[in-house]
Amino acid sequence: PVQVPLGDALIAGENSLQIQITAPQSESVRETGGWLVLKDKSNQKQPELRSPPRLELKPRIHIQALDLPLNGARVQPVARVRGELDEGRVRFLAARDGEILAELGQANVNAEGVAQTDPQIWEGPLWSPGDPQLIQLVGILEDSTGTVIDSWSRRIGVRQVQVGARSLEINGIPTPLMAARAVTQQRAGTLESRVAAWSRGGV
After folding, report:
1. In this structure, what is the dihedral angle of CA atoms 138, 35, 2, 98, given to the nearest 10 degrees?
2. How many other CB atoms sit within 10 Å of the CB of residue 92?
3. What average pLDDT does range 23-41 have in this prediction?
4. How far apart, in whole angstroms, are the C-alpha atoms of residue 90 and residue 117?
5. Which backbone phi and psi does 8 adopt, to 5 degrees?
6. What does 35-87 look like in DSSP terms, one character per residue?
7. In 3-state terms, what secondary structure has residue 101?
8. Sequence-separated (6 or more) residues with CB below 8 Å from residue 134
9. 31 membership: H or E segment, kind and range
10. 50 φ/ψ sector (left φ>0, alpha ψ -120 to 50, else beta)
11. d(CA 119, CA 112)
12. What is residue 34's predicted lDDT score, i.e. its pLDDT?
């Protein structure tokens, strides 16, 4: 994502914001992340977005990131706050379908802008490949008086992923891997990539 401070450019009353998106020049999809593709590769001025841009307006002091790492049966919510804040704290909630699943405690924001609670038992749903249950992790940023400065939520699947001998272990359960091996060949001056083999496990 691209972050642009707007505070110095705003005036009292109504403001307008114009966003212009241009195609990258001579950059591969690997470099750009693949979000901007070209309808006609011979015409570098006709880009097509794979997904519409999203505009998020945030206050000067705001929650920049949220995460809910799982270790065994315990979770430890963490938030990263951007902006100078003398004293503040973040309250954490887990919600789904508009209902609160659990109150996950609160933590003070340290000098590095990080707030992380103590580990606590997680009794909510877990994400897995066969049952990808998702929740909303909500962070509420408050100042020393309890006034809400910012609130932000992230859709997340609570899971623990570890690398096993021949598979990934998701929530302690071995999960086979599937991968494709691509072979690139030079034919008549053009590059063709084809899937040569599929394999399961042992990747």
Report:
1. -20
2. 25
3. 55
4. 9
5. -70, -20
6. SEEESSTT-TT-EEESS--------SSEEEEEE--EETTEE--EEEEES--SS
7. strand
8. 96, 127, 155, 156, 157
9. helix 29-32
10. alpha
11. 20
12. 52
Tokens of 150: 């910012």
Name beta bridge partners: 197.
181
Residue 155, beta-bridge partner list: 136
Query: Which stretch of DSSP H or E encloses residue 165?
Result: none
Taking 3-state DSSP, the helix, strand and coil percentages for the chain, each rounded to the nearest 5, stand at 5, 50, 50
The span from the CA of 94 to the CA of 134, in Å, is 10
Number of H helices, E strands in the chain: 1, 19
Is residue 90 within 8 Å of 115, Cβ to Cβ? yes
Task: Provide the token pair at 32.
Answer: 């750009």
146-191 pLDDT, tens digit each: 999 999 999 999 999 888 777 788 888 887 766 655 555 544 444 4
199 to 121, 139, 178, 181, 195: CA distances (angstroms):
38, 41, 6, 8, 11
* Rounded CA separation 184/203 (Å): 20
pLDDT at position 88 over 70? yes
Cα separation, 136 vs 28, in Å, equals: 34
Q: From its phi and psi, is residue 34 left (phi > 0), alpha (psi between -120 and 50) or beta?
A: left
d(CA 96, CA 94): 7
User: What is the model's pTM?
Assistant: 0.66
